[in-house]
Amino acid sequence: MSIIIVGLNHKTAPVEIREKLSFSENALQEAYGKLLADPLIQGCVIISTCNRTEIYAHVSDTEHGIENIRNFFKQKSGVDLALIKKYTYVHIQNKAVQHLFKVAAGLDSMLLGETQILGQVRTAYQSAHKHESTGKVINNLFKQAVTVGKRVRTETGIDQHAVSISYAAVEMAKQLFGNLIGKSVLVIGAGKMSELTAKHLVANGVSGVIVSNRSFERAIYLADQFKGKAVKFNELYNYLGSADIVISCTAATHYVVKSKGIRKVLTENPGKKIMMIDIAVPRDIEPEVGKLPGVSLYDIDALQNVIDNNLMERKRAAVQAEAIIEESVEEFAHWLGSQYVIPTVAALKKLGNEIKQKELERAFNRLGELSDHDQKVIKAMANSIVNQLLHAPVTNLKEYALTDKGPLYNETLDTLFRLDKVRETGVNPEHMHDRPVSVQALVRG
Fold this sequence. Notes:
Layout: E1 2-9, H1 15-18, H2 28-36, E2 41-48, E3 52-59, H3 62-77, H4 81-87, E4 89-92, H5 94-105, H6 116-130, H7 136-156, H8 165-177, E5 184-188, H9 192-203, E6 208-213, H10 216-225, E7 229-232, H11 236-240, E8 245-248, H12 259-268, E9 274-278, E10 295-299, H13 300-367, H14 372-400, H15 406-417, H16 419-425, H17 439-444
Parallel strand pairs: 5-6, 5-8, 6-7, 8-9, 9-10
Antiparallel strand pairs: 1-3, 1-4, 2-3
Helix pairs in contact: 5-7, 5-13, 6-7, 7-13, 8-9, 8-13, 13-14, 13-15, 13-16, 14-15
């Protein structure tokens, strides 16, 4: 038994391959049905986002489990098996656990430390659980992954440092004003970047939104999203006095906000502070505006400096996160190892005791009358032989249980000693030699 991952992401496969191997919510029920029809798969979870598709599975045969999941991808997508092997990666046991924990912590994302992936991991697990496709090992694995993802964010603050233009703009606004509650924003231009920045500002407390755009219809559309007000482009300066924050991102080839107009606004509103964020290239706001009293002007380069500094902070936090993940992988490995080892050790000791008792009865019957002392000596010798014989395999199995080879050694012992029969039926060990072990079974184990 082992945990495996077969998957692909933005680092290993182009979008035209990723989209063919992705799963919609509606396709999951059928997908889980096909995966669980495979007797090798004891439980599984599918994570499917725009940047990754991964199948996490608990399988009874590692090599054939990987092969079967790749074939499942082939049947689902129509992509040639050779291409699937080229673009997918495989992780087994501790490496698989480590990979999932990194995914949940945001360390394997396109944007280091991004927060959305933790919710996606949680949702994927909940969906799999709803489709009854998990099982004890997968349940514990994903519960631990969500816990690790939360812990990394809480203890390292990896997601607290803005690494996008829109988030950086919000961070700088907070630094200037302290609190954004009750502040108002004037959005010049109604493109995606302006919309995203306004969205983040509103989420952080900004209450008033004014939108000005050359296309008044587009201004109305964007303003409606924030329950704000749309104004015509030629009325722009009339509303600058009521704004605390100005975001400008148009496609203009010349300055649309000039120092002369801003100077008039400041004269009419003495003591006013305005934060102006120019994320357009070419720039929308005349550089001289930043020299006016009360105006804080930031262009795309200033925001990029913030992003670069914050990215360094995230990389430092990622080092802390790696330590948390390493500790959590070891903790999970101990739990998983115990799941493999405890039944095997118990069955091995049971087998040893059954053989010992059988042979003691046979010996006593042959020896006839023995004194209590002689019986105790023989029993002690039999106990010693069994204990010494089992000591090395039991000790080594417990050690190997914490490594990637744990399942292999566990399955080997199960196969060599037919421990499944001991556990299930308590079969008489005297008759176990009647059914030979096949070479194929040993190789497969």
